Amino acid sequence: EGVGPQEYTLIKMKVLEPLSDALNSGSGGCIYLVAATLRPETMYGQTNCWIHPTIKYVAFKVCSGDVFICTRRAAKNMCYQGFTEENGKFEALAELVGETLMGLKLKSPLSVYSAIYALPMLTIKEEKGSGIVTSVPSDSPDDYAALRDLKNKKALREKYCIKDEMVLPFQPVEIIDVPGYGRLSAQKACDDLKIQSQNDREKLAEAKEKVYLKGFYEGTMVIGEHRGKPVQEVKKLIQRIMIEKKEAMIYME
Ligand code: A2H
């Protein structure tokens, strides 16, 4: 990290239910939670969105008339990357504490699930990406561990008013075959290292390192129009298709 600018794919997760009046009146556009990912080719396997309960997010209008929700820091970066009408400027329509976004129903591009929900993740960093993370438990050890925590711990769901049906029906999806790890590489890495929870930071870092590079260099897609092809070959193609359909954008930091 920290060598040069990092390119993220910003995934537009459409909010499917009314939010506050401040956000719904006016422009007639849609509202999106925007998640920064390094793995656009994994978006078929999205099972939920991660929000940090105590981080403050802002809602602001972008050129298209739509409203994006992310951290203030990310909104500031985006306004210098042509996201807003006036370069270098954005107007916060509302400030929203993560907790108030929990349980929001969303539609996210490529996901095999037609609707997914915003759920709490306690290890999200405010100073990275958009502060909103899309969850792919098949291929991301962090996502796998955090989703398993929510499934196993009723008290954790209750604490954030998460209904069972927002969590329990969502299973990891087989999207990439990784030699030696199979089609649910994050689950295998977490099992091998006996990772107990999302707070097992050291082991999770090890698991991430193991499956991340192997998934990229040796993985083969087993879903979607590019099934059978190497991840390396299709990553950019899948990113480009989502961008052309206005379901994603490039975000740098
Ligand atoms: B990745 P890097 Cl399938 N806090 O997307 C914590 N984690 C964050 C974050 C934040 N504020 N913003 C983004 N991320 C996650 C997919 C994925 C990711 C897979 C496998 C590995 C993986 C689905 N989640 O990342 O420090 C996002 O999760 C492993 C590194 O900028 C994003 O990509 O390198 C990645 O971390 C960005 O991490």
UniProtKB/TrEMBL annotation:
Record organism: Helobdella robusta (Californian leech)
Similarity comment text for this entry: Belongs to the class-I aminoacyl-tRNA synthetase family.
Protein known as: leucine--tRNA ligase
Ranges in coiled-coil conformation: none
